[in-house]
Amino acid sequence: MPFPRAAGLRTSTYTEALKKPIFLLLLLLSMATAVTHAADADSAVKYQQAVSEKQTSRRILAFEEFISANPGDPLRADAMELLVWNYKQIGNQQKASSWAQKLVDAAPDNPVGLAVLADSARYHEGSTLDQNMANSLSLAKHGLRQIDYLKPPEGISAREFSEMQSATRAWLNGAAGFSYVHLRDYVTARGYLRKAATLQPENPQYVYELALADLTGKQPESQEGFVYLAKAVNLTQGTPAGAQIAQFAANRYREAGGNDKAWDQYLVSTAVPGRSVVTASSAAAPSTAPTVVASNQPSGRPDSQLPQSSKPAATTATQPRNAQQSSREPRINTHISEEQIQASLTPPPLPPTQIAPKPLAHPGAPISIGILLQAAINNKENRRAVTYALSDLVRHLGENDEAFILSFSHDLVFEQDLTSNYDLLRDAVDAVKPASGAALLDAVGFASGHLNRIARKNNNRILLVISDGRDANSKNSPYEVTGAIDSSGVKIDCIGFGIGESESKSRLQALASRTGGQAVFVFDSAAFRAAARDLARNMGIDFPQ
To answer: Domains of the chain by range and CATH?
Structure first.
């Protein structure tokens, strides 16, 4: 038996010899893993430190250092996205564009990168203007297809992400709008520019370009156009372009048959808080249309950041500001007064040659209905009654009817865009979460315009507003809102919920009566269903008690 014993001994010796290198290998792998984890943890700390920087310039430097030191880090794309965002915040378009290109190279569908590139594509040197605008439109449309999938970069606050998301939507819609103006497709341009101007109401580029699109081409929308033209005058006051825009705007209104007194009403109603109002009577002689959109950035801003169609014309001298003012003291608007809200019943008149469109009823036609719900109403006490009633309403829509669900607080939230799919509408109603804030006028102005733009042709367009009548957070003036409502041709019905003060009640009554709609008022959730059913029956929609 010596042979087997010797073989067993050799096997045992061989196994023992292997144990030591295997143990050393495992030890080295464990150490390498620990080092990797430590490096990952260190990079995550560096990233969070960059996110936490309060000073924008330091935050930018911290992100650039992080990106340089961590080329393969999973947070690198988030860091580049925030870098693009912060460079835009400080107005450094060149750096923002440079990093946006790197971001899109790494993440081709990133909406923030696409938005910045769409904005800067219009000024690309070495290409024709037609090529630049075509490229800008392509990038903008790509970004708009992806914007709903935008996720918050790691570590940023919900508030900052909301601001980023809103600004990105504005940049994409603005770029598309400018491109369609270049193509002289003014009707299409209006839709994009309205969204941009709604998201950034103090951006003079979007406001002025929308005014020109409204007043140009087929089917002009004069009420909205003159409102935004007046707002552009106020926003650009005191800039190199401001005097030219003021002259052009007053002249355009006169040419349409208006007078200076009526134009002054537009200027006062759209005044920027804290700034003086330069009225038509104080404007200089009429001029040709200025190809200028001034920025509210410092005057040293490069021309290349302005739209190609809106670069400042050369001037030989700048008059002292006092020389441009009227001999009388300009009026100062320091806040949006309650008088302006009440004035929504009597907005400035259109010139005699213009007529504001009114809601047209098509008996027996299908219905396109927008449901605009104040988020604060859908609270714990009311949620069951409100959700069940609205769910039943959309369940009983006709075969060719359609609806959208939009909630509002401080901001607007599309729960579901226009569709005939009951399941989607029911889920959207259920998804509305309670939130404080009441930007009622902004919400109604946007929702009525949106319903008009996307509803099926020849459908009856009805906006159902469910609100307590308060308007605490709107950025647009009542004149701008009534202009949007008049232009939309949408009928507005209102359900006032728990209203105790006459001012809020009057506001909803004014919105409804202006468009031929109805306003009903309830004080508890039990009465809500009956009110919703009665209004629905008037629309041709019936659902059980």
So the answer is: 42-197 (1.25.40.10), 201-293 (no CATH), 367-539 (3.40.50.410)
